[in-house]
Amino acid sequence: MEMRVDFHTHIIPENFPDFSTKYQNDKWPILQPTCSCGANIMVAGKVFREVTNQVWSPEKRIIDMEKENVDLQVLSPIPVTFSYWAPIEEAEIMARFQNDFIAETVAQHPTKFIGLGTVPVQNVESAIRELDHCVHKLGLKGIEIGTNINGKNLDDESLTDFFAMCEKWNVPIFVHPWETLGSDRFTKHNLMYTVGMPSETALAASSLILGGVIDKFPGLKICFSHGGGSLPYILPRLDHGWNVWPHLQLTEQPPSFYAKKFFYDSIVNDPVNIKFLVEKFGAEQVIMGSDYPFLLRETPPGKIIDDTLSLTADQKRAMLGENALRFLNIPVNQLI
Fold first, then answer.
1. Helix or strand or coil: residue 16?
2. For residue range 11-46, what is the model confidence (pLDDT) as tens digits?
3. How would residue 264 be classed by pLDDT, with cut points 50, 70 and 90?
4. Rounded distance between C-alpha atoms, residue 295 and residue 322, angstroms
5. CATH architecture, domain 5-12+54-334
6. pTM of the model
7. Residue 234 to residue 240: CA distance in whole angstroms
8. What DSSP element (H or E) covers 191?
9. 73, β-bridge pairs
10. 3 state SS for 79-138
11. Are 209 and 239 in contact (CB under 8 A)?
């Protein structure tokens, strides 16, 4: 039985709290209604993103899923709400609010949604407490984190205990770009989304590899959004650098060895790129995702996989649903 699972979707509560007023800081995103079926996400008085009720209404999402032949959506927060910059007491409240909302949405529609949580990784002790809450109390199936923590790459020593606990508890991690490097140079043409995010994702993955995090925690399950960004293309260059600078080596194997352990969503916009991902990492490491409900999303979800003629029926079935469930530690027969 083929099951279509859209691994990469985002959600925000319609009653999203106005922390900018509560905590007197305009860096907090707020949800400003524009009509009964739409709103603007505002940051510092400016429109960050225009959204429709697709982003908060489970009922609207289910209608779209049925129309687009999607059986399950994996719900994750919008990265602008990560709030790693915030004082930890405030960030904890924001994370808890979103996690409880996602868990409640899943509980109301358990055959339609799977939930990922968010944790305040700027403070590892708090992050581990919220991770415990997400997984062991709310029943969320993993977490979403950003590609950097206030400018610190993911191999920063401050995150060691966090990754250790993710491995111990077998918590899948979805890595999504946010606060892209060189953001001041991406102000025109929406380059932050088309160039900055892929570059930021490659930097995050490269840091985890070259920093020895995957050597130290080989049991970590990590999926990178947008097909890993530019990582697949630059892997030969990373390998070459690893070989010519042996004094910098912190890993036992070259970067391409570890890159094959990661999962990658399928948001790569071209069947040629899907074929490339499969050739580099194997069909078993590619997970269908659409970036629903945003403008750059793939419509319908899974179209690029369907259009990749070189894939076998078994490979397509795995990529369209089975790989996501395996990544999230959910037996396929549990959902049939």
1. coil
2. 999 999 999 999 999 999 999 999 889 999 999 999
3. very high
4. 26
5. Alpha-Beta Barrel (3.20)
6. 0.96
7. 10
8. helix 191-191
9. 6, 113
10. HHHCCCCCCHHHHHHHHHHHHHHHHHHHHHCCCCEEEEECCCCCCHHHHHHHHHHHHHHC
11. no
